[in-house]
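Encode chain A's predicted structure.
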Amino acid sequence: MTCIFPRLRDIVDYEEQRRVPEQGYPRFIPHPFVVAVQEKHRKDGYEVIAIQTPEAASFVHSNYFDAQTREHSEIKVGNNGKERYGLIYVSKEYVKSARESVTNAGVILNSRKAQRILENRFPEEKTDELASQLSQLEKGSNPELTFLYTSGMAAIFSAIDGCMKKGTGALVIGNTYVDTRKIFQKLPERFSFKPTIFLTNESEFDIPDSVSVVFLEIPTNPLLEVVDLKTLVNKAHKKGALVIVDSTIATPYHFSPFDFDVDVIIHSTSKALSGKNNHIGGVLFVNPKNPELSKKILHLPFEMDDDEGIVLLENLRSFPERIKKMAENAEKIVEYLISNSSVAKVYYPTGLKHGNGHVVSFELINDSYETAEVFYDNCTIPIKGPSMGFEKTMLMPYSLITHYHDNNVTLAEMGLKRYLMRLSVGTEDPDTIIRDLASGFSAIPAQ
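Encoded structure for chain A:
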């Protein structure tokens, strides 16, 4: 599931399109099974993008492609007698635009479904237990208002599409996952919405009358701020705006947004809920106090694959013990980082419960490529790449990967250093994690 970049130069080569990773998050790097399905449907002059369902393909094509890309593409239904799936044929000059839209919406064909298509077999028997298990974790939720998605981005996309009122806009508080930000940036281009307001100062927020949706992550990514949610929700609801919280980083173990009357909670189940780096999906909870809202949010076109649900259900069994250990380890790592002379600043959330989570961000003493390269290349953490929530520790040069093409002014507006590091702490022995980090820090020349 994760791209592995052993050296900082590997990231630069990837971003400059000089290197194509052999593995990675499926929304960006199609699994070999997905590639094989697409090859089966090859058509001269076109590239084909395989989509989880025909309905999802039609929805994204109609609602999210720009006019020119839509004009130079068409939808076909794939059907081998056991599986239905969508196919979007795109003229080659419009493939980049089409792939970006599909990636943002999170509806690419799932690798497990692709394997079934290639092997001409049915999925395993669907489990009805998963929504109930997830609802038990998310305090205040209801299994009947718990909806499973093919990815976290599909859940976010559906929530935004269902909750926003035409002619209004959205307010995004704090930094968010980069593809979430892209969806909000593109809303005025694709729909009759006002431009999104991005508010990077999490402590001061006014909600204009034109806003119908307020979106935020708890904690924010990657600076890990915990917004005063009680005040925010009160202000939003007084203005008639709905509040959507992506609680992926906090997980239900560390935070319960329904305690503050938010309207929708979203998690990427691919991350800490799964914890095994072998599952892709998302979950959306509608507040039981506002059940009618569930009728406005699309579910079926983006529903989680049955086999993915089985994998997630099995992975959830270890979640309570796993997330507790990750949080305990993170506290020890933070103590180490704060006392390290090569670290300029540590970002770690406060205001959560059962500890403060498993994600830590930090700035190096010198925010330069040279310093970052020395630290990163010599750090012996085995998994270095763009993801989090795995039960094994992961190191990510956050800004370099997610905002590579943004200039320094844009980064400064978001409060990000160019070589900010984000650490997703795992369940290993904390002393081992510290030794791996120390191998990178000790290589940095004395200031």
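The longest strand covers residues 84-91.
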